[in-house]
Design a protein that fits this description.
- With 203 residues, the chain is an all-alpha fold.
- It has two domains: 1-59, Homeodomain-like (Arc Repressor Mutant, subunit A); 63-202, Tetracycline Repressor, domain 2, CATH 1.10.357.10.
- 66% of the residues lie in helices and 2% in strands.
- It contains ten helices and two strands.
- Strand 1 and strand 2 form a beta hairpin.
- The longest helix has 20 residues, at 16-35.
- The relative contact order is 0.10.
């Protein structure tokens, strides 16, 4: 705690709560790597993080909520949103990182949670995807400014179109995204939203 200009005490930014949160996220990732979602427990995460389990239950309540929060916190590092100045290069870098993330222990855990019907989990899952899509759609917003795609392209629709095949391969087909497949897919996405071709948003 630190004293503010009006003499009141306030919480120091990046203090103990931030350190605990980071330790819990790190422990969650390590537990997922070793045992997957089925073997994850809040007690084990607490032991690894060096804190009492009640500190985790107080904030996350369930392992599913904890996994989703850890995913949101680490996605910016695992799947950064590139800005190379080129739609082709942005998509190539973004989809390469996303494919690697989808096949990681955390990515597999997220896929396992995709069908969870619990309202609390569904809400956290929806917030996770909304935030990630809001960030990733900038790839196409910038492409519109550069006139690389049709001006009536809906950026959210376009990014969903771009990422869907990766999840199909990982969750349903269990096939890796080869370099050749990636190049082909990026080309397909660019043609689908190219100026003069019409936008998917009108379909």
């Amino acid at each position: 705690m630190v004293k503010s200009t009006n003499g009141q005490m306030r919480r120091r930014p990046g203090g103990r709560s931030a350190r605990v949160r980071a330790a819990v996220h790190k422990a969650t990732m390590e537990e997922l790597t070793e045992g997957g979602l089925a073997g994850l427990s809040i007690g084990q995460v607490a032991t690894r993080a060096g804190i009492h389990p009640t500190s985790i239950y107080r904030q996350w309540r369930t392992t599913e909520a904890l996994v989703l929060d850890a995913a949101l916190a680490t996605s910016a590092l695992n799947v950064p949103i590139p800005d190379t100045g080129s739609l082709r290069d942005d998509l190539t870098a973004f989809l390469t990182a996303l494919d690697r993330h989808v096949r990681s222990p955390l990515g597999r855990a997220l896929l396992a949670l995709s069908g969870a019907g619990d309202p609390g989990i569904a809400g956290a899952r929806d917030r996770f995807w909304q935030e990630r899509l809001d960030l990733a759609k900038d790839i196409f917003e910038r492409a519109k400014v550069r006139k690389e795609v049709a001006q009536d392209t809906d950026a959210t629709t376009a990014i969903e179109f771009a990422i869907a095949p990766l999840y199909l391969r990982a969750a349903v087909m269990h096939r890796p995204l080869t370099r050749q497949a990636l190049v082909h897919h990026v080309g397909t996405v660019m043609r689908a939203f190219a100026p003069g071709r019409g936008a998917t948003s009108r379909a």
